[in-house]
Amino acid sequence: MPELTYGQTTIEWHFQLDANLKRHYVTVERGRPVLLRGPQVDEFEQEALVLRRARWICEKLAQVNLPLISEPIVTGSRLRYAGRTYYTEVRHAPNLIKPRLTFTASRFIVDNPDGKSIQPEALTPLLDQFYRERAHEKLLVRVRYWQRETGLQATGARIRYFQSRWASCDAYNTLEFHPRVMELPASVQDYVILHELCHTVEKNHTKVFWALVSSHMPDWQKRHQVLEQAVFGDAV
């Protein structure tokens, strides 16, 4: 497997041909070599692409290789939503068949038939569903807002799960957003939406694309920096 050294870090990568992509993407995941996807290139060109994103890759490797949270969630734990972490109350609810998650605008409440604590693997599906519902409720409304503001038009917008991306704009100009976008601050959610709307005009990250983003959101770089802290893939 090819590798290169960047500072004190050895980066191994695996290339995956995807002729449907017009540019190359780098994905970092726990316990796996870096994945480079895109049009066919030889190993020398692959190394250049990986080296171009080496600093970003090293930062993400450090993040994804942190120990996984394994402690039970109890009253006083914090859950993330819209750029903040919220106090979480876990209540014993013996009359329920399965756990239930609600949000009161100031805290999360977990009603759990098994006691006053809940394991992360039991909570994750509930939190995913919460993000998905909020994305349908709030994010798609913001898509319509930004279409009115910019004049950029998508053929549709929907919520779907990606392996390693926040959002996408397909060849038919349909926008797709990962539910976890709802973890981000509202201003960054808006940036993700605008970013994808600009791809309805320019599919690649060219100067024309970034000029279009800047014309509608002059401070986009600050919002983009928040995304750089995510563990999802990034375009080369």
Give your account of this protein's structure:
This protein is α+β, with helices and mostly antiparallel strands and 236 residues long. Helix content is 35%, strand content 26%. The chain contains 6 helices and 14 strands. The chain has helices at 43-52, 54-64, 120-150, 186-198, 207-216, 220-227; strands at residues 3-6, 9-17, 25-27, 34-38, 73-74, 78-81, 84-92, 100-103, 107-112, 117-118, 156-159, 167-169, 174-177, 234-235. The strands form 4 sheets. The protein has a 5-stranded mixed beta sheet. Strands 6-7-9-8 form a 4-stranded mixed beta sheet, with helices on one face. A 3-stranded mixed beta sheet has the order 11-13-12, covered by helices on one side. β6 (78-81) and β7 form a beta hairpin. α3 (120-150) crosses α4 and α4 crosses α6 (220-227). The longest helix is centred in the middle third of the chain and has 31 residues, at 120-150. The protein is globular. It starts with a strand and ends with a strand. The model has no long low-confidence stretch (mean pLDDT 88).
